[in-house]
Amino acid sequence: MAPRVHQAQAFSFYCIIVLSMAISKSNGLTLEFMELLCGRTYTFDTSFQMDSGTGITYKNQLDCSLTVTAPSGHFVLALITRFELEAAFSGTCSDYLDFHNGTDTSAPKLNPTDLCGWGTNIPSNLTSSGQSMTLRLVTDSTGVYHGFNIVFTAVYSEPCTGSDFACANQLCIDPSLRCDNYDQCGDKSDEDNCDSYGGSSSINVAMVAAVAATGVVVLALIVGVVVYKVRDRSRWKRFVNTHIDYDDEDGIVEPPPSYPITHKYYKGVRGQPALYTSPGHHVKVTSDTSAGSSTEIQMTPGSNETV
Ligand SMILES: *[C@@H]1O[C@H](CO)[C@@H](O)[C@H](O)[C@H]1NC(C)=O
Ligand SMILES: *[C@@H]1O[C@H](CO)[C@@H](O)[C@H](O)[C@H]1NC(C)=O
Ligand SMILES: [Ca+2]
């Protein structure tokens, strides 16, 4: 009995964990801030997003470099989702961002001219040739704007291996990036055919089925435990209420039967059992410690007679 109840509890607990994991998974992409990562190499596995800074605007007088490195066999796709730096003045940027094709700022630039201002002169994406790309953000002493947000993704070209997702544009990305509400392919194909809960349609059907099956199993366990308990109790009641004819017509007083009992028949505090007794009967409990832990109950008609 007790093990079954514990199993049901453990199972429910497990279900809650799985559910909360499924929910937290849709909580979005890791967000970093370039201002806080200056001079660093940031390695990542699948994808992350980065804002220029933690404030509403970026800071003045920055010269901040950051190398972003994908796992080997991948290259870095940087998708610019928001961009606003101080506009160029007579053809020269005063605040600007550059992307370099390698592990430091000495690598050739991926953008032919410094990026500043906003609008159509800003490319939607930049791609490194190798595992790493290095960003450099330079700002002067006046004029701060909202800055940028960039989604970085580790990608490689088809054919895709394992369960990696094949984008419509022949790039491969980690399957966890599908339907996470962020475009990581660059053509939004990883966000196609997703439901409003942020799951791909097929994954969500499987999840609903799993949750439903889990519910049925938990319910069946609970019903099973309750039925078992009720049946047990009624069996015990029937047993103690049955009239026992010790002195039947043959005149021979037969010894009262002995019945095995366990602690589950006790009502009341453990160690101080209060037994259910049928009216007119005394109950004597004997513990046979020499033969292990077996406990016996013997019932006698109302008298002082003991066995
Ligand atoms: C980046 O560097 C690689 C060599 O490491 C080169 O083949 C590739 O053309 C470069 N890409 C750009 C856009 O400069
Ligand atoms: C990157 O931008 C270019 C030019 O807008 C576009 O042709 C290309 O499809 C884009 N690539 C990705 C992976 O988004
Ligand atoms: Ca995505």
Structure report:
There is one protein chain. The chain has about 300 residues and is an alpha+beta fold. It folds into three domains: about 1-25 and about 200-235; about 30-200, Spermadhesin, CUB domain (Jelly Rolls, Sandwich), CATH 2.60.120; about 240-300, no CATH class. Helices cover about 20% and strands about 25% of the residues. It is built from two helices and 14 strands; from the N terminus they run αβββββββββββαβββ. The protein has helices at about 1-25, 200-240, and strands at about 30-35, 40-45, 45-50, 65-70, 75-85, 95-100, 125, 130-140, 145-155, 165, 170-175, 260, 280-285, 295-300. The strands form three sheets. Strands 1, 3, 5, 7, 9, 10 and 11 form a seven-stranded mixed beta sheet that branches. A four-stranded mixed beta sheet has the order 2-4-8-6, with no helix packed on it. A three-stranded antiparallel beta sheet has the order 12-14-13, with no helix packed on it. A hairpin with a 7-residue loop joins strand 13 (about 280-285) and strand 14 (about 295-300). The protein is elongated, with a radius of gyration of 37 Å. The two termini are about 30 Å apart. Residues about 265-275, about 290-295 and about 300-305 have low confidence and may be disordered. It binds 2-acetamido-2-deoxy-beta-D-glucopyranose (2 copies) and calcium ion.
